[in-house]
Amino acid sequence: MANEVKLSIDGMHCDHCEVTVGAALERAGLDEVRVDWRRGAATGTPSASFSAQRAGDEVAGIGYTVKSVETTEETAAPTIDAIADDYDLLILGSGSAAFGAAIKARDLGARVAMIERDTIGGTCVNTGCVPSKALLRAAEAYWRAGHSPFAGVPTSAGDVDLPALVAQKRELVEQLRKDKYSDLLDFYGIDFIRGDARFVDADTVTVGDRRLRAFRFLVATGADTWVPPISGLDDLDYLTSTTALELESVPDELIVVGANAIGLELGQLFAHLGSRVTFVEALDRIAPFEEPEISAALADSLVLQGTTIHTAAKATAAGRSGDRYRLEVEVDGTTIRLEADRLLMATGRRSRTEGLGLDGAGVDIDQRGHVIVDDTLQTSNPAVFAAGDVTAHPQFVYVAALGGSIAAENALRGTTRRIDFRTMPRVTFTTPAIASVGMTEAEARDAGHPVITSILPLDLVPRALVDHATEGLVKLVADESTGHLLGAHILAEGAGDVIQAAVMALKYRATIDDIAETYHPYLTMAEALKLAAQGFGKDVRTLSCCAA
């Protein structure tokens, strides 16, 4: 049979590119030309006048580059385009990692399907980032209305209509689920399969009675809420990070077990709406993975806002007496008993892998059920990749989306792009907010760096003074020998926005002098980074406004 020519072409970025490149290849003597700009590829049947040199010249003449030309028999062994497989990439899950992978795969011209047993969109849009931050912002606005810091500007807060607020949140979730997930299926040409997916062997998945094969697979099934074993807990209708967002009345009193990001956010949400909140944290401080100065300052702020905090506290038993929940907690060898109207368990999330048949596919998981991947997102089965919360990677939506995109490219193209967390920021949306990137002081010392630090209280930041919001600080960690920034840690209003400048500083290996000598607009919270950088060599208290 006639040979087929396959070309890899750089520079295409739209449908018009397909037309112009196709015409150039026809001039070069290629018949039956098919061009896919998303994949950067073209195929056709060569005529007698065709040559790789002529194709390269014609394509270069219109501003593109032929990277490679391959001639194969039509009966060649199956490749990514093999009809024997139902799909080039079959994705288990439909959250951020899944869509990141699917969009990248379609850009590469692959045939893609997602399998989903629950609601499309995964955790972030349905039960995580979007609904929680919508309610957090509303609760903060309510709190500020009743706590104006400005003389001569009295404000007040009325009653909370939580059902109305939750209904507004649901509308937002439904709209974003449609705009950012459901509607993209048709736009990108992604098949959506409803049902429970299960591997039956290394290259086959079943969904009900249907058997599906693929060139490559991606496991992106996310994570579920997890609670530790506590006597009596299973008999209670305790709240989780999912169900707490559906409450339609504000508890008078609320116990929150877990004071890392999720527990802190949800606990403060209800505190701002009027609940008397008690935090119970098993480790020795709240926000236990942040810098200790951040943890201490946030704890002080939460106490001033009316909450109670127990750290180094182990929950040993739970129960209920009538309408009241009780929790027994061991602190310093003494058992104390806490009571409240509701109990919220915010103790983390675990990967959702049960029932996937990963053993049968030769995919290894760790003791906590996370799918084990290397830094190219490949599992122990070379045909199976994994991304997002189903792995042990940090559980952030932007990590999941990037991981899905990297996994898809590596799976379909055979590339070895690697996921790197060196410049990954994290934000906890408390008031004030926490934002961090890079190493903590302890991590930097453990890594062998000669460490220097600068800690800047917010009462030295003009923007904080103007806002009467001086609760917080900025801590920078640097290498003393090189001056390179190693980490930035912020507790402040707007910390999540400010941290992006530190992300870029880390990405491009800036020094603390680079930061100190860079323009930072006056009367913005971003100026706190410059002041903290100046603090390595100067007493910031002795500087005038904007002094270099």
Set out the fold topology:
Elements: E1 3-10, H1 15-27, E2 30-36, E3 41-46, H2 52-61, E4 65-73, E5 87-92, H3 96-107, E6 112-116, H4 122-126, H5 129-145, H6 162-188, E7 191-194, E8 197-201, E9 204-207, E10 210-219, E11 223-225, E12 253-257, H7 261-273, E13 276-280, H8 292-304, E14 308-310, E15 313-321, E16 324-331, E17 334-340, E18 342-345, E19 349-351, E20 384-386, H9 397-413, E21 425-428, E22 433-438, H10 441-446, E23 451-457, H11 462-467, E24 473-479, E25 485-492, H12 495-507, H13 512-516, H14 527-534
Helix pairs in contact: 3-9, 5-6, 5-7
Radius of gyration: 28 Å
Structural class label = alpha/beta
Described by its quaternary structure, the protein is single chain
Strand content: 25-35%
Uncertain spans, ≥5 residues at pLDDT below 50? 74-83
Mean of pLDDT: 93
Number of strands: 25
Q: Which term fits the overall shape?
A: globular
| Share of helix, binned | 25-40%
Number of contiguous helices: 14
| The CATH superfamily title of the largest domain | FAD/NAD(P)-binding domain
Tell me, what is the CATH class of the largest domain? Answer: Alpha Beta
Indicate how many domains the architecture comprises.
4
